From TrEMBL:
TM annotation in the entry: 16-38, 68-90, 102-122, 159-176, 183-202, 255-276
Keyword Nucleotide-binding: no
Species lineage: Bacteria, Pseudomonadati, Bacteroidota, Flavobacteriia, Flavobacteriales
Annotated organism of origin: Saonia flava
Name this polypeptide is given: DoxX family protein
Claim: Amino-acid biosynthesis is one of the keywords in the record: no
This protein's UniProt keywords: Membrane, Transmembrane, Transmembrane helix
Length: 415
């Protein structure tokens, strides 16, 4: 089994295992960052080997499990097998890979640390899983996608975000000193296994990355698993671990110490600044826009005819939702959602609205805002005259928001 101690001569099995994992994870990390450079050959593979008839893009629009990612994974696996065989033939006389294994583990640790700190900070500052939006609050549960349900579940609790994010940050930080990397890798394995299972069970498209973070941390953990098993399962004493260091110089060690210390401080400072500023500008602590809220259309008059609130009417508005500055969502009676650019002019008491990416079709409304709970719009939508009277729907009307935490529950409230 591969260890971080110096061994003058490795077994054939150890050398083959090292060549495979070195080639595989190096290619995975390399293609993750520069895979877009191979768009032409990868698309050729998709169309000619896998017979994909549809077009697929490099970016995936936020998905880490898109077609391009799986083709990249396929290429990485095939290349790894070829490299391992060729390497084993051409370098069969080498007795060990102590130095290469040392630097390979360094790369794995840096990659995992960066990933864990990133995922940790976006949870601590509730950027990844924001509190359910106003539009989400009005969405019937049955309309949620599995991923949307997971995002809502996670986003509901600031405390749970803080807890899970802190664990991820701690796991990453424990990987920095070599003395604590076994504990860190074990913690990361547990955390990321939970994340990977959640990604699979809720159809969240980060399955490839989460599984690889588990595998990478497992590689680090397995270098010291015997001592771990002896301590926690066999109740046996363990000997001191003699880490191999190819650059065993005091001056170099001091440089590494200061680089680690300064780098760690910078990562934490940058992470906190980025997290706080993003949460302040786009997260739950953002400044609420003018007319913020959920406005339920109580009266809807089209061309002097009052339209009743029929659930089959796709024209009549049910809600006007203003959640973010410059944006608004209209939910019709059929629960269809229309996304608008929303530009209120408080001086002239006017609102300009147009469908997203369609500035040629502008609707202009005169509005009145007599009190906190009432809003009235009057204007033109295409060739129709509209007059709409809204009543504010408060967040406290939703049990999910108003229930809060209770130390004492005489009976469970599971609605």
């Amino acid at each position: 089994m591969l260890t971080q101690e110096f061994k003058a001569e490795w077994t054939t099995k150890m050398k083959i295992v090292f060549r495979f994992i070195f080639a595989y994870f190096s290619l995975y990390i390399f293609l993750m960052f520069v895979g877009g450079l191979f768009e032409t050959p990868f698309k050729w593979i998709g169309k000619n080997i896998f017979n994909f008839s549809y077009n697929f893009e490099v970016s995936g629009n936020g998905s880490g499990d898109n077609t391009y990612a799986y083709i990249s994974l396929f290429v990485g696996i095939i290349a790894t097998i070829i490299i391992t065989i060729a390497w084993s033939i051409l370098d069969s006389k080498r007795k060990s890979y102590n130095k290469a294994f040392y630097w390979f583990l360094k790369i794995l640790r840096i990659f995992i640390i960066m990933a864990m700190l990133l995922y940790g900070f976006v949870k601590v500052f509730q950027i990844q899983f924001p509190y359910p939006s106003l539009t989400r609050m009005l969405e019937p549960l049955g309309n949620f996608s599995p991923m949307g349900l997971a995002w809502t579940y996670m986003g509901y609790s600031k405390g749970f975000n803080l807890f899970t994010g802190s664990l991820e940050i701690i796991g990453g930080l424990l990987l920095i000193p070599r003395r604590t990397q076994t504990l860190g890798s074990f913690l990361v394995m547990g955390i990321m296994t939970h994340v990977a299972v959640m990604n699979f069970m809720f159809d969240i498209p980060v399955k490839i990355l989460s599984v690889h973070l588990v595998l990478m941390s497992a590689v680090i953990f397995m270098t010291d698993y015997r001592r771990f098993v002896n301590v926690f399962f066999k109740n046996r004493p363990v000997e001191q671990y003699e880490y191999y260091d190819p650059v065993n110089e005091r001056g170099f060690d001091k440089i590494v110490f200061w680089v680690k210390s300064i780098g760690l401080a910078l990562l934490i400072i940058i992470g906190c600044i980025f997290g706080y500023s993003t949460e302040k500008s786009n997260g739950t602590k953002r400044e609420k826009p003018y007319l913020y809220g959920m406005w339920e259309a109580k009266t809807f008059i089209k061309n002097n005819d009052t339209l009743p609130p029929l659930i089959t009417d796709d024209y009549r508005w049910h809600y006007l939702i203003v959640d973010y500055k410059g944006r608004a969502t209209i939910k019709t009676m059929t629960n269809n959602k229309l996304y608008y650019t929303f530009e209120p002019d408080t001086t002239a008491s006017k609102i300009k609205m147009y469908l997203k990416d369609n500035e040629l079709d502008i609707s202009n409304y005169q509005y009145s805002y007599p009190n906190y709970s009432q809003l009235e719009l009057e204007g033109f939508n295409n060739n129709d005259t509209l007059k709409i009277i809204f009543k504010r729907k408060d967040l406290d009307d939703f049990l999910l928001h108003s229930r809060g935490f209770h130390w004492i529950n005489e009976s469970p409230l599971n609605k």
